[in-house]
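Hello Y.,

Per our agreement to keep a running log of every chain we model this quarter, I'm adding this entry. I've kept the format consistent with earlier entries: sequence first, then predicted structure.
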Amino acid sequence: MEKKEPEGTFRNVEPLLRPQSITLVGASERPDSWSARIFRNLRSYGFAGAIHLVNPRHREIYGAPCFPSLTEVPGKVDQLVVIVPAQHVPGVIEEGGKRGCRSAVVFSGGFSETNTRAGTEAEREMLAAAQRHGILICGPNCLGNISTRERTLTLAEQGVDAFKVGGIALISQSSGLMGGLARYAHSRGLGLSYGIASGSEANVDAADYLNFLVEDDSTRVIGLILEAIRRPVEFALACKRARAKQKPVLVLKIGKSKQGREAALTHTGALAGSYEAFRAFCRRYGLVELRGFDEFIDTAEIFLRGRMPAAGGVAAIALSGGARGYLHDLEEEFGIDFPPLDQDVQQKLEKLLGVGAGVGNPLDLGAAGASNPQAYLQALELLASQSNVGLLAVQGDLPHGPEFAARAAGFQKMAERVSQLEKPLVFFSRASYSVSAYGAEFREICGVPFLQEIRKSFQAIGHVISFWNGLNAEHLQQRREGDQALPAEKRVSSSRISESAVPLSDVDAFALLEQGGIPVARYAISDTAEGAQSAARLIGYPVALKASVPGLTHKSEIGGVYLGLSAAEEITRAFDSIQRKNPVLGNAPVPVLVQEMVRGSLEIYVGSRRDPEFGPLVTFGLGGLFVEAMGHVASCLAPVPVAEAEGMVDESGVSRALRRLRVDQAVCRARIVDNIVRLSELIARHSEIHTLEINPLVLKESDGQCIAVDVVALISRKV
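Predicted structure for the entry above:
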């Protein structure tokens, strides 16, 4: 069994990404084979190290010598590219270790991903051999890597002969998607530092690669294509380091629909699956989540070709009233702020542009302004002069040929002038268009982003502005050191949870809330009608009567809840009615919960569920009987800082509901936030809690207190 690394440690992946020599094990004479493609790619790309071939059936392939085994390979054996059946891979790794091999890229599939005994055993043996000899393994089940500065190209894509050196690094668990995104970046004139196909990540994972790239000076933007995160604690630490270095991490999440929701007893499983936990993780650690290749490249282009935005919003110049109106439509969707113009700037623009221009922000330059390059430039300078503007966006297409030299010169002057003002400039077009060779060359000369199609352009601008605003927010600097994903030993896999999570009784669940400082409605448990009556007298009428069966949610749907009982005879009837539900509730006598009736102006849901990847996830929104149908919930990883709890109140719509009530807004909001924080800290402290949810948490009109009325708690038993 492979020895586990101590928590919070990373493997040094430099031998994988910067090999001194490469040996192809399992080389094939077929011209369309993976080995043939890799051999051609390495030679055409200019790899400086030795390239060796191993296949016992051949003495020469592709006009190069071929050796029967690794023992026969001359010189240093540094990196293996392994393309043999899974059952032979352990022997190859062992033989490579004896030759001093430092790393291996394993193309072979058929390991633990097959869920077979043979595959699992082959992977175990491969990892054992790697551990004995200190070999780093990329994969298995991957299709190679790109290191542009080292001229290493083990990517097995056909027809790939070069990639431009640049500042984007890609890590992808999908080799095919990584290759596709790398080629698309190349077509857009954006270069790579590294392209890493991590595959099944049996030995080295995304956290290791990310940690390396954070420290790599040639990498300015890191892109991730992720299906799962194997080590969330280490991944979170690497993300925090990227944040500290102001290095953006862009993420494409694969498998959003596979939320892994368990068939649980609670609302939480229906409201927040693993994708919600992933989104919360991105927000916590400042990752920019994207949904497609265009969105990725557009956003990356701004980060690479633009400078860091100053504090403030966006000033935009459009060339028509329709485009100006469209930008206003996108303002709220993408969280973009178009700050109003200063009065003196407004007046100067009106004088400059005259009749026909739509003066404001966004600015409609009008026909006269659009045809006057000098007016165009002056308008841009006036907008850039505003202290509340951090980024400038100007409508304009790349010139297609020399006949557009005047336009190109105007764009160049704009770029130079804005650069002097130390504010980033982004050009955007009305629609998509083909880029000519002349346009591509001009884009490189101009050195600023040229994005296509209004909506996509401002979606990317929104991502960049959000990243820098988040980076500069004070609460990010004030995070507690423990504010991260829970350690691995405190996570329980989803399969084990479903088998071992058991519900607490009402008494124990309410006691758990009280331990966390969350107020609960007064209650008592009784298994007789007389006892229920006595409890009601002590609590004070009116009361509620509820079947008290561990794990029973949706009690009202089976007639297990009676509200507003004001007399002893009403309690008796309700008690007897609950007992008649025995076929549903069980054959034994059903105890009842006698509880004070809490009258309030608002019912809230707050719950937490331990996600198998990221630890406890807190979900918050409007509550009551229809909580699952409402859909307006906000999620955050526990423990939740006050600033993020405030954001959850706004995101969920609860703040809007509060404004409709005749209550002290500040007091009520503060108490709601306090309860979110307390519940999050409670589940973060107790690793045995799998699920803890309150529905409803009632906001009392009289004093703004929040009182827990119903609670469900599931405790994980280790198996």
